[in-house]
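Take a careful look at the sequence and tokenised backbone pasted below. I need to know what the token row says about the fold.
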Amino acid sequence: MKEKKQRLFFALAPDHSDEAFRRLTHLSAVCGQFGRPVSADNLHITLAFLGMVTTEQAEAIVTATEQLRPPQAFSLQLNTLGYWKRSKVIWVAPEQPPAALLTLAQQLKDLALSCGLEQESRPYRPHVTLAKSATRRPEPLPLFDKIDFHFNHFGLYISESVSHDGRQSVHYRSLGQWSLTSRYQ
């Protein structure tokens, strides 16, 4: 019998209780007019996409993550809105990603490779997907005030298909969280 695999990824999830998150969900709704808005529960910044993973690989990933020495907590500013024609995605991103974010993403990419999982070779571009299946670039792009977030942890997530009223959608569920405040100092 073929082993069932899970679609996993590492990500930063914004705190749902703060004003910045409310503004991010509003921006997603505005951009959703041009496509399909991403649900508030699924807004995140992917750090490393792991793909389809076996239970054994998932256990190795969790074990390796426990040994990781991540950077300190950091803040970032989402201040650039854009559209990718090929993937039909409207996104918001930091114009200048903090060094700690780039370091963490590289650490997790290296961790995935060490666990035998292929990783993309293209450069990492941190962003939050606001709307999918956008048929065109919104002209003009909606105006918005910069959105500041602080991240104290990152997580491992699973992408699960769910059915609501006969419609399929995707839900991201946390499988584990790790602190960005150093335990080694």
